[in-house]
Amino acid sequence: MDTLIKNATIVTMNEEKELLRTGYVLIKDGRFIEVEAGEPQAPLLEGVDVIDANGKWLMPGLVNTHGHTGMSLLRGINDDLPLNQWLEDKIWPIEKKLTPEAVQAARRLAMVEMIESGTTSFLDMYHLQMPEFAEEVAQVGLRATLMRSVIGLCSREEQDEKLAESIQLAEQFRGSGNGRIQTMLAPHAPYTCPPDYIERIVDAARERSLPVHMHLAETRKEINDYLTEHGMHPLELLEERDLLSGTEWLFAHGVHMHEQHFELLEKHNAAISHNPKSNLKLGAGIAPVASMLKHDLTVALGTDSVASNNALDLFEEMRFAVLLQRGINEQANMVETYEGLEMATISGAKALRYHDVGSIKVGNQADFILISAEQAHLHPKTDVLSHLVFAAKGSDVTDSFVQGKALMRNRNILTLDKEKILAEANQQLLLLQK
Ligand SMILES: [Zn+2]
């Protein structure tokens, strides 16, 4: 049945940056067929499922462009180490012990957290049980871009095996779940994948028109080690080997980059997933986002995993992204309020190469959330955009829809059993720690 949502304040994020103080949307076959200001005429209400938003704010669902949901049981496992030590001493040893049940519990926990905090699309980069996850995400109803990431610190045979698995996943699930599942290839990082291996992955991506995702320039150590070993920044090496052209890149982090690197990214239409909280927590630094935006790069937001965040709340990420740039540049409009919202919505969709997601407009997929403005921190209710960027929390989200289908109504998750999932997450962590 078609759905009509009326009496909402609509933050469209469309090209005209329209905000409809009171408006309605009509959804048919998972897409918006009307987005209008005012009250719907009586005939429109016949034969449709009518939801009265009661003045709630309706906006595009948030897009998380970098994460590893399979690591969600590692939240709080270690909070005070730098990236290399954190990975080598804490994360990788525990990951070796992860059972399929633990990974599944972690992912379900992450999906609950994402739905509850307004994320409707997410990128997941991981090496364990990706086909099983693709099937489960399709069932749950979230939109996702999935990839089996590879680490190339192994024999050529093992590298090839891992790449074959990545390609298999990408081809099998691309467009599944009624188009909600998309795929990429994903070398883990320049420091874990030798250049020849990245080249083979990029070739495979070009042949299949798949985008490529990789961690890049996350820490100063990564850059210094690369300079010692290869005599240049990893992005420059990608350019020297002609690996930036002919495929759509999305890089996570990009903390340690300079003017010449933004020019390369611009030249190749590469996008950046900015993960401010993860970068701060691991002491990696602050990405030069204001400079990236001046170059008209697509800068989107990511949480990274909860082992380095420790939450999947994109409202926090949006706020950190804006405030950090103002602080380090000592300028109050450096990254404007609206740009923060763009990073969390339409730019996220662009970074994941979605063409009909990320704004509330006719013809687009009906991925959206409703936010209750009843809490004191969102009063007076006047300046919606300001409140969304500087005051709102994930827990203000009351309803979540993807392709017009409700995943959460009035804070109740409809497609996952939250209570059971929370219990299972605790139980699985205890088993891991035995
Ligand atoms: Zn990551």
Which secondary structure elements does this structure contain, and how are they paired or packed?
Layout: E1 3-11, E2 19-28, E3 31-37, E4 49-52, E5 57-60, E6 62-64, H1 83-97, H2 100-116, E7 119-126, H3 130-140, E8 143-150, H4 156-173, E9 181-183, E10 186-187, H5 195-208, E11 212-216, H6 220-230, H7 234-240, E12 249-253, H8 259-267, E13 271-274, H9 276-281, H10 289-294, E14 299-301, H11 314-329, H12 337-344, H13 346-351, E15 368-371, H14 384-390, E16 397-402, E17 405-409, E18 412-413, H15 418-433
Parallel strand pairs: 1-4, 1-5, 6-7, 7-8, 8-9, 8-10, 11-12, 12-13, 13-14
Antiparallel strand pairs: 1-2, 2-3, 5-15, 15-16, 16-17, 17-18
Helix pairs in contact: 2-15, 4-5, 11-12, 12-14
Bound molecules: zinc ion.
Zinc ion (ZN) is lined by residues 66, 68, 215, 252, 304.
Explain the overall architecture.
38% of the residues lie in helices and 21% in strands. By secondary structure, the protein is an alpha/beta fold. The chain folds into two domains: 113 residues, Urease, subunit C, domain 1, CATH 2.30.40.10; 290 residues, Alpha-Beta Barrel (TIM Barrel), CATH 3.20.20. Strands 1, 2, 3, 4, 5, 15, 16, 17 and 18 form a nine-stranded mixed β-sheet that branches. A hairpin with a 2-residue loop joins strand 2 and strand 3. The termini are far apart. The mean pLDDT is 96. Zinc ion binds next to loops.
